[in-house]
Amino acid sequence: MLSQTTYQGSTILLLLVIVVAAYTDIRRHRIPNWLSLGALGMGLLLSYLYLPDSHLHEGLKGAGVGLAMLLPLYLLGGMGAGDVKLMAAIGSFVGPEVVLISVGFALITGGVIATLIVLRNGEFSHLYRRYLVMISARTLMPAEEGSIAKRRFPYALSIAIGTLIALGLYGQLEFTQLGAWIGSQLQVPGGTQ
Q1: Could you tell me the CA-to-CA distances from 193 to 132, 172, 180, 186, 190 in Å, in that order?
Q2: pLDDT single digits (tens) 67-95
Q3: Distance, CA of 63 to CA of 99 (rounded, Å)
Q4: Distance between CA atoms of 178 and 1, rounded to whole angstroms?
Q5: Cα separation, 7 vs 19, whole angstroms
Q6: pLDDT value at position 56?
Q7: Per-residue CA distances from 12 to 87, 149, 153, 155, 164 (Å)
Q8: Pick the residue with more confidence: 11 or 124?
Q9: Which residue would you say has higher pLDDT here, 18 or 6?
Q10: Cβ proximity of 24 and 39 under 8 Å
Q11: Residue 15: phi, psi to the nearest 5?
Q12: 109 and 162 Cβ atoms separated by less than 8 Å
């Protein structure tokens, strides 16, 4: 039961990391290195200590998949380095399969949030015309100053939502074992039940 409790404890730690990352990205438009790199180290350490030998490298593979999935978007200028490091950290906790699903849901969520922001600011027609010109001219056209395309987008929120969806789909958000263990530790010795 201790390994199950530790596994659930690592999920709680991951949830704390993504909430702090989303909060700081929304407030300051950046994800601190101490958070993402510290989480990466912690995820790798936990996967090394608590996963069976057959899964010893799951944390490394997960971090690599998380990094590889978002690195091209960073290199194209569509995302910050903090987002890429955060996804690698998430991968170190959940492994390659779950982080792949997390990235997919994060991209969908990010698209929905970006569309809502564009619609709320009334810039849909301007953005639509810009992309129409780029597609017809087959060239990249830089965004104009003041355009919504130039503004920073707190993508950690999308990453957090995508990760929560993936964790939910993989049944990693159930904490019954952890609750039972904490309850047993809090019982008063010699008390009646």
Answers
A1: 70, 30, 15, 13, 9
A2: 999 999 999 888 899 999 999 999 999 99
A3: 8
A4: 9
A5: 19
A6: 58
A7: 16, 35, 26, 21, 11
A8: 11
A9: 18
A10: no
A11: -60, -40
A12: yes
- Does the pLDDT at position 112 exceed 90? yes
The model's pLDDT over 44-53, given as tens digits with 9 standing for 90+, comes to: 988 887 766 5
Q: What string of H, E and C letters represents the secondary structure of the chain?
A: CHHHHHHHHHHHHHHHHHHHHHHHHHHHCCCCHHHHHHHHHHHHHHHHHHCCHHHCCHHHHHHHHHHHHHHHHHHCCCCCHHHHHHHHHHHHHHCHHHHHHHHHHHHHHHHHHHHHHHHHCCCHHHHHHHHHHHHHHCCCCCCCCCCHHHCCCCCHHHHHHHHHHHHHHCCCCCCHHHHHHHHHHHCCCCCCC
The pLDDT of residue 140 is 73
